[in-house]
From TrEMBL:
Transmembrane segments: none annotated. Its cofactor is [4Fe-4S] cluster. Gene3D superfamilies: Aldolase class I (3.20.20.70). The gene is moaA. [4Fe-4S] cluster 2 binds at C255, C258, C272. It catalyses: GTP + AH2 + S-adenosyl-L-methionine = (8S)-3',8-cyclo-7,8-dihydroguanosine 5'-triphosphate + 5'-deoxyadenosine + L-methionine + A + H(+). [4Fe-4S] cluster 1 binds at C23, C27, C30. Binds 2 [4Fe-4S] clusters. Binds 1 [4Fe-4S] cluster coordinated with 3 cysteines and an exchangeable S-adenosyl-L-methionine and 1 [4Fe-4S] cluster coordinated with 3 cysteines and the GTP-derived substrate. Monomer and homodimer. This is GTP 3',8-cyclase. It comes from Desulfuribacillus alkaliarsenatis.
Length: 327
């Protein structure tokens, strides 16, 4: 086995797989109100096709798989795919990013199939504001999903909030206080300019303020060695059951340590969330050697870093919505 190491020396052992481009919410920073025109069923990778890609990825050193969307739980029989992936030699961790609307009702089957962890997207603890942002989402269902994940021991249970100036930055203290009695990793993420339009053009909020807000609540302790914390810097309030993570994908990018590749629902292998570059793997899906070569070709396309803060020509940066890439 030859590891997936790019020309900048980064070893890739993590792949994010979008199992669908459909979603049961319409979050304002992710897609327009009318949604994004969904792919035809025949253009979505089948479970068997995804499995073929995972097997080759695992043979090249990929150890962690994260299932994304759209919303992965709108994909019928997702538990079947999770079980299939769990049987692949070399795969050590299967996680899922979800809006958790349907998580509580399916979590037992998902865990039995082999799901290890979940990241739950939740940008407001105010029911009315959550409904506004998601264009109809039910906060109570999401909170029940968080509770179910904690009860089933899917550790660490991560809750992701995209901080948007003027919209939910006034809730940061509430999110942090949530961790006092709740064993979650509350993660604050910078608003990323992905896609061909921005809802909040002035939505950037400096995440350095998050720690200051935490320190105003209680003494803060830095935490290291958190399982699966990825690019987050993590701390906790003294005596708290949970932790707080801060992720700066834009202002303090972690490109130098990036270890991930992305597979879109329509079969495009992407080396980076930001750049338009991608390779269609479908012509090679049943040929392991060809797929092996495609993985290496994609690595050669990977840039040293993204340039989200810079003005670029349209042909360089992706024009896909976040829901079409998988985050």
């Amino acid at each position: 086995m030859t590891a997936l190491i790019d020309k900048f020396g980064r070893k890739h052992d993590y792949m994010r797989i979008a199992v669908t481009d459909r979603c049961n919410l319409r979050c304002q920073y992710c897609m327009p109100e009318e949604g994004v025109k969904a792919l035809n069923h025949v253009n979505i990778l089948s479970f068997e096709e995804i499995l073929s890609v995972v097997k080759v990825a695992a043979s090249l050193g990929v150890r962690k798989i994260r299932l994304t969307g759209g919303e992965p739980l709108v994909r019928k029989d997702l538990e079947k795919l999770i079980f299939m992936i769990s049987q692949v030699e070399g795969i050590e961790d299967i996680a899922m990013t979800t809006n958790a609307i349907h998580l509580a009702e399916r979590i037992d089957d998902l865990q039995a199939a082999g799901l290890n962890r979940v990241n739950i997207s939740l940008d407001s603890l105010n029911a009315d504001k959550f409904r506004e942002l998601t264009r109809g989402g039910d906060l109570d269902k999401v909170l029940k999903g968080v509770e179910a994940a904690i009860d089933r021991g899917l550790e660490p249970v991560k809750v992701n909030a995209v901080v948007i100036k003027g919209f939910n930055d006034d809730e940061i203290a509430d999110f942090i206080r949530w961790t006092i009695d709740t064993p979650i990793q509350m993660r604050f993420i910078e608003y990323m300019p992905i896609g061909d339009s921005l809802v909040w053009k002035d939505g950037y909020f400096p995440l350095e303020e998050v720690r200051k807000i935490a320190e105003s609540i209680a003494p803060v302790i830095d935490v290291v060695g958190v399982k699966g914390n990825g690019p987050a810097s993590v701390f906790k309030l003294a005596g708290a059951a949970g932790t707080v993570g801060i992720i700066h994908p834009v202002s303090q990018h972690f490109c130098s340590s990036c270890n991930r590749l992305r597979l879109t629902a329509d079969g495009k292998l992407k080396p980076c969330l930001f750049w338009q570059k991608e390779v269609d793997i479908r012509p090679y899906i049943h040929d392991e050697q060809q797929l092996d070569n495609v993985f290496r070709d994609v690595l050669n396309l990977k840039e040293e870093k993204h340039q989200m803060t810079e003005e670029l020509q349209g042909e360089k940066r992706t024009v896909r919505k976040m829901s079409q890439i998988g985050g």
